[in-house]
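Reviewers asked in the last cycle whether our approach scales beyond single polypeptides. To address this, we selected a multi-component target totalling 809 residues and predicted its structure end to end. The input consisted of the following lines:
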Amino acid sequence: MEKFGFTLTKARVIDYDRNDHSIVDFIMEREPSFKACIECGCCSATCTTGNFTGFSLREINVLLKRGENDQVRKKIKKCMLCGKCSLVCPRGVNTRNVVFVAKQAFQKFDNYAV
Amino acid sequence: MENEGKKKIWSEYQKEIANDHFFYVRSCIRQSFYPGSEQFFLDFMRNVLGKDVYENPSHTTCTGIGYHGDIVPLSTIMTIVARHFALMKESGYKNIAISCVTSFGIYTEILETWKHFPDELAKTREYLFKATGREFDIPENMAHTSDIIYKFRNEIAAKAKNLLIDKKTGEPLKVVEHIGCHYAKMFPKFGVGGAEFPHVLSGMAEAWGGEVIDYPERRHCCGFGFRQYLVQANRGYSISNTAKKFSSMMPYKPDLVLTNCPGCNMFMDKWQYTIKEMEGTAYGTNGDSIPVLTYEELAGLVMGYNPWDLGLQFHMVQSEPLLRRMGVDFSREDKFKTKDGRQMPVPENLINA
Amino acid sequence: MTGSVVVVGGGTAGMEAAGQLAKAGLSVTLIEKEKYLGGHLREWHHLFPDRRPGDEVLSYLKNQIIHNNIRLLTGEGVEGFQKRGNDFIINTRSGDVVKADAVLLTTGFDLFRSERKEEYGYGIYDNVITSSDLEEMFHSGEIMMKNGEKPEKIGIVHCVGSRDEKVGNLYCSKLCCVTAVKQAIELKEALNKCKVFCFYMDMRMGGALYEELYREAQEKYGITFIRGKVSEVGVNFSKRLVIKAEDTLAGRPLKMELDLLVLMAGMEMSAEGLKLAEAGKLEIGENRFFAASDNHFGSNKSNLKGLFYAGTCTAPMNITETISHARSAVSDIINYMNSDRK
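The resulting structure, written as structure tokens, was:
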């Protein structure tokens, strides 16, 4: 209600316990190498998309692990699946497949075509 | 386990609080929003304990609100505080008793600044002398008035007429204590009990029979924040902080919120009304809101002062549910009457009344 | 060779050094303030990185000191010492006087007192414990909350009392990161259902096989690592712990409920060591540990000729490093007895 010229806002805090972790569990099961990610950012640094848009695979990895799925759904569409990120990952994460499986998960759990 | 650990922390944060001969400096906003508070303090100190508390009519605002609102520069506020110290020196006092937490924070911050940057102290002396011809001394003892009530909390308990106990069930009342940020977060050593588990208000609540509750957002700001509130467009930020605190304390069903800061008291009281208007949420039990009291008001209630003399009717959230639980005698008719018995206008849509 | 050495402190460094000195033919007096030898090693159930039982290393050390050249003084403190000419005269707390040609201080470390980080509520909230408390639980085989239930969600805070100006410790205690990883794995093994979250500022996995252990914790045990230090702990209505941290990689604050919170307490110069430093005018560094006379080739030497250091009284060290440091002290002492002292 805009009665006083200002409104209540939701806190920015990541509410880990309330967030849904089904997407990340799905990914971890199908692409276990995802567990080894240490968020170094090599994937994002070399990413063609990331150089021209706000897309960051490193950020998406973190958000998925925290269950911040709403943030990921749209962002993940920007990936062109070129696989350059997999080439540079020092922990051997199959990053390309992480994106792939994440998209599957969104489709399966959210009925959300990505 | 809980209390043993806290006692250990409290023993490390004991500050020296003077016993008598106070130079009293008032708050800007408490006199209008919660007018019974400072009145009680003076009456209790002078007439009950027989202490010497002096007020100087030339004392002004410390300009803390302007300082935190980005319109008063540091050198200006230091000179104004120096002027208050000069008034204290001229009146022959060495112990300062500060009613406002913002002022208390300003005073401690300035004294620490002068300790670490003596040049600033020298400059301030020069500014004050040039502007007013006055000279000043650093106070020997500095206390917030909640420190002083804390010091005499057992004297108050000894004279208690209404303890913080539910008259019907005999259960202790649930007290949320809220400490102003500027009381100890900047300098934990100047706060009774430090900054993480302060004892200044919880000590009072326990001495007077209440049960203090610890809830996840206990240490969160009340939502005042000066410039975050002064501009209307920013108030959503202020009120969201208040909402965060109240939703966190709500499951404990608190009977009252006890504060030691003018700003906290004002915002925790008035924003409850605003949130209720905006979203229909009331944070107390049975659709009531939670009364927010200053430590002087609560001390007064405990000692059996008339709630209307303490100014409880001037709060946004009325205290009747609390008064009933404590078993305080009060007269509905006299609530909005002047001292000489004339009827004042009665506000519409009072919360909790 | 002949000569006498007093070793102060019967922990890992003191025991190893005493054994090696005795083997070299020197007569050794090993003074330990506690009733038992072993120091902090006794508190460890399993060691990193291979999770070998701490007792195995302890029995090795106990064997080391079975030697005719070693005189043991347990339950005995050192009051002070003087150097007269080339001789050291050590006064014990019970009034004994021991003479020696050289002195080796192996006074070790004290565990950081976690209640000093008030925001974590150690000693206030029942289910906030330290890494040392958890080792004790591993020892007893009973990992439980105060109410006797098994924790299902456990947080671990790195750097408690280390890299923290607020408590006056600017240095890294070096062992806590790997201890956190080791303990996280052990929690996961002991309580199959539990979830473990490590809150770290940096993962400092510099030792041999540490990084491998970290990776195993992620891949095999599914432990979650969140970059951001916990800065507030409270309890909620159901008496569960609630922590606040910043998830620095997501750039947003994060809150989480936990059943158990384990604080990785850092290492500090021991109070005993500090007393000796003051009594004997021994130089200490900015981090309050004994200052070595040279960082590269004199890490066992003090500012006083004939007085040496070994182990964690000079810097945080693991068991492997402590044992190596004790051996290098022995080599310095032998050189001193053979040439410098004469």
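Chain A has one domain: 22-110. We regard this as preliminary and will revisit it once experimental data from Aim 1 are available.
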